[in-house]
Amino acid sequence: MNTSCSMSPCSKVGRMIFSSSSAYMVEKVLGTGAFGEVSQCLNLTTFKRVALKQTRRSTYNERAEREVQILKTLQQSNSHRYNIVRWHEAFVWEGCYCLEFEKLDVNLLEYLRRSKSGSLKLQEIRPILQQLATALQFLQSLKIVHADLKPENIMMVDKMCKPPRVKLIDFGLAIPISEVHAGKKIQTLWYRAPEILQGAAFNETIDIWSLGCIAVELFLGKRLFAASDEHDMVNQISHILKQHSWISSKQSQQRVPSMARLESHAINDLNDLLLRVPRNHHAGDEMWAELKDRMRFVELIEKMLEIDPSHRITPTEILQDPFLTMNHLVFPFDHTAYYRACIEQMDFSKTQQKENKLG
User: Fold this and answer.
1) Whole-angstrom Cα distance, residue 359 to residue 356?
2) CA distance 130 to 75
3) CB 172, CB 35: distance < 8 Å
4) What is the spatial distance between Cα 20 and Cα 28, in angstroms, rounded to a whole number?
5) 255-269 pLDDT tens trace
6) 148 among known catalytic residues
7) Whole-number Cα distances in Å, 300 to 99, 194, 317, 325
8) Per-residue confidence (pLDDT) for residue 161, from 0 to 100
């Protein structure tokens, strides 16, 4: 009997869920949100553990149907080869949409919280950026905007794996470029691009902005823009990036009451990232190698956090950027332990990418 599910059937451990081809037993709830929840289930047909995403209310089924259409488009182009979660099937159970995905490990936010320092080294951030830029390059080729890139929507394949291997998830807000329109409110506030804040026209470059925010968050261990609302977000972006010309006259009038909040900034300028004490306290070339690497990292962040979306760096350009190619470390730092650690992480990451293409 199909009923409207105001409470998701997945919420009870041990509950059985059925599709036309499989039976699932709920083992535990992995996460909840406004639109539904994700549970770890045992597929009793394949005997594999999967992640089952289910709408909380039948009123959200239209959104789920749109997500399924996006997932079908991705699947047809072998999206799993480009660091995007594998989607298996969709079905309706007790009036609500259920989407079965491969079971991954923890999301990037949880991974960050569990790390000893609460942040990541540049050697760890680089392969993550490489994998996510590859995913965004793939989405760009299909003219699809993810529209909700944030640490919670980036999953570790295996949190024990070094270097980190990640996959992009949650296409609930994803939208084809052909359907975008100015004024659409998308993206989580702390990762929201200036053009969305302005209600202006946008395209896939909003995902690049979000990626820049995430990269800094991984390095600092705290959000770059920890805004309380959109006006505060505008103020923080203007303050940190030292660009005020993009603010509308109305927003400019609202800057003064919000200026007191700026004290909560993780940094006051992107160049502050250069001032943090290197974790490698050894003097000499080891320290200089890390500082040189950090300079290239900041330069890449500046390109991703370009206010003007038409000048914002593309996924392909990110993959060719010096921070990812590491050409700046070859001479005179190729003899350092820092350089060898960077090379080892990226060589392993590239090997994983090749395996994905064959899988």
Assistant:
1) 5
2) 21
3) yes
4) 22
5) 445 444 444 557 888
6) yes
7) 36, 18, 10, 12
8) 84
Query: 3-state SS string over the chain?
Result: CCCCCCCCHHHCCCCEEECCCCEEEEEEEEEECCCEEEEEEEECCCCEEEEEEEECCHHHHHHHHHHHHHHHHHHHCCHHHHCECCEEEEEEECCEEEEEEECCCCEHHHHHHHCCCCCCCHHHHHHHHHHHHHHHHHHHHCCEECCCCCHHHEEECCCCCCCCCEEECCCCCCEEHHHCCCCCCCCCHHHCCHHHHCCCCCCCHHHHHHHHHHHHHHHHCCCCCCCCCHHHHHHHHHHHHCCCCCCCHHHHHCHHHHHHHHHHCCCCCHHHHHCCCCCCCCCCHHHHHHHHHHHHHHHHHHHHCCCCHHHCCCHHHHHCCHHHHCHHHHHHHCCCHHHHHHHHHHHHHHHHHHHHHHC
State the pLDDT at residue 262: 44
Q: What is the pLDDT of residue 352?
A: 65
Q: Are 227 and 237 in contact (CB under 8 A)?
A: no
Please pick, among 148, 232, 293, 321, the residue that the annotation labels catalytic: 148
Residue with tokens 């760009």: 140
pLDDT digit string (tens) for 297-356?
999 999 999 999 999 999 999 999 999 999 999 888 989 999 999 999 888 666 666 666
Residue 3: what pLDDT?
44
User: CA 329, CA 339: separation in Å to the nearest integer?
Assistant: 6
Q: In what order do the strands lie in the sheet with 96-102?
A: 16-18, 23-32, 36-43, 48-55, 96-102, 87-93
Residue 253 to residue 258: CA distance in whole angstroms: 10
- What CA–CA distance (Å, rounded) separates 186 from 192? 8
Q: Name residues of the chain where pLDDT drops below 50.
A: 1-4, 6-9, 255-256, 258-263
Total residues found in the chain within this entry? 359
Q: Look up tokens 């969709």; give the residue.
A: 90
71's CB contacts (< 8 A; 6+ apart) are 87, 90, 99, 171
All residues at 6 or more sequence positions from 340 whose CB lies less than 8 Å from its CB, including other chains: none
Report d(CA 195, CA 178) in Å as an integer.
Answer: 17
Type of residue found at 136: L
